């Protein structure tokens, strides 16, 4: 008998077609956003669920379906899943690491450069017919080249971001829970490990690459923003909630930092409305890994994890190897 699989969000049609050859698939190609109650109901009787970062797998959702064997997240970050509850319930949890590192690193640079050189702000101004008011000192930004790049979170994506700075002749500093190896530091444009305080004080531009957890909740708040340079750009391509959005809005409004590039927010897809009133912020809807090639690689990676889990093998990206999987 084929395993029953719920694919909770729309994906590439050929991915669904391939899954249908192996599984009994309930897809959601119209991409209806399920309420928690609808998701619970859809999951009834399924052996596995394929989700994105927008679906929450809390303990009550996980235990409500005793047949559930696997949760396959099509994302690297998995703070949307109660992994401990899944482990206790005998449910395997997988994610899609590595395939998105380079694309996400590209996007961190996209937001950094768009902010430092005020691309979006000046483009809106041009569209509004203001070019005739151009002045020699219009939209003066901050240089990227030769600047000090700060990275908070030196995992694989952090290293990929740092490595890109070689062509800009930058000095790279970082802070991380544990220090990177000398080889990783060398790869990351000879990044230098510093305290969090020195990182905040010395970075001309700061990129956040931390997973969200209770330990990283509001790791950038009012006190941290106060240490940053008034000319600095802050970029968050990691997760909402690692930044205190209210504190950031205040800092941007009072020009205590120059600008922010944000792809993630607290309470996504809701956004603090005050962000929309600020011109020194670039706001995008969680598209950091969103190249065609990488989104396909993520879907393939999740499919491979699903196939392994359903055939009784260890999935390549199992997050809870201690789980005693159900037969
Ligand atoms: C996207 O945010 C991811 O975690 O892959
Ligand atoms: C995140 O920084 C990762 O480990 O990929």
UniProtKB/TrEMBL annotation:
Task: Tell me where in this chain the D-isomer specific 2-hydroxyacid dehydrogenase NAD-binding domain is found.
Answer: 110-288
Q: Name one Pfam family in it.
A: 2-Hacid_dh
Q: What are the entry keywords?
A: Oxidoreductase
The broad enzyme category this protein falls into is oxidoreductase
**Could you confirm whether the keyword S-adenosyl-L-methionine appears in this record?**
no
- Organism field: Herminiimonas glaciei
Q: What is this protein called?
A: 2-hydroxyacid dehydrogenase
EC number per UniProt? 1.1.1.-
């Amino acid at each position: 008998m084929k395993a029953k699989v719920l694919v909770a969000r729309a994906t590439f049609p050929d991915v669904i077609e391939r899954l249908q050859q192996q599984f009994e698939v309930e897809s959601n190609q119209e991409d209806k956003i399920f309420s928690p109650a609808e998701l619970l109901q859809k999951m009834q009787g399924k052996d596995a669920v394929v989700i994105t970062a927008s679906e929450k797998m809390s303990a009550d959702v996980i235990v409500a379906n005793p047949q559930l064997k696997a949760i396959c997240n099509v994302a690297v970050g998995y703070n949307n899943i109660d992994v401990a509850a899944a482990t206790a319930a005998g449910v395997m949890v997988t994610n899609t690491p590595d395939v998105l590192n380079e694309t996400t690193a590209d996007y961190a640079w996209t937001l950094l450069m768009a902010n430092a050189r005020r691309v979006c702000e000046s483009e809106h101004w041009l569209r509004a017919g203001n070019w005739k008011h151009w002045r020699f000192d219009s939209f003066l930004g901050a240089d990227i080249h030769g600047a000090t790049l700060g990275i908070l979170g030196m995992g694989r994506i952090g290293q990929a971001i740092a490595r890109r700075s070689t062509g800009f002749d930058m000095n790279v500093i970082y802070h991380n829970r544990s220090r990177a190896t000398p080889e990783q530091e060398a790869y990351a444009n000879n990044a230098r490990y510093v305290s969090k305080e020195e990182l905040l004080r010395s970075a001309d531009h700061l990129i956040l690459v931390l997973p969200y957890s209770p330990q990283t909740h509001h790791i950038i708040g009012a006190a941290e923003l106060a240490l940053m340079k008034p000319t600095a750009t802050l970029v968050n391509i990691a997760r909402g909630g690692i930044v205190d959005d209210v504190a950031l809005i205040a800092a941007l409004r009072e020009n205590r930092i120059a600008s922010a590039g944000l792809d993630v927010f607290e309470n996504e897809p809701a956004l603090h409305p005050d962000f929309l009133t600020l011109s020194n912020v670039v706001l995008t809807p969680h598209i950091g890994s969103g190249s065609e090639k990488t989104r396909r690689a993520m879907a393939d990676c999740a499919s491979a994890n699903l196939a392994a889990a359903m055939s009784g093998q260890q999935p390549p990206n199992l997050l809870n190897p201690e789980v005693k999987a159900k037969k």
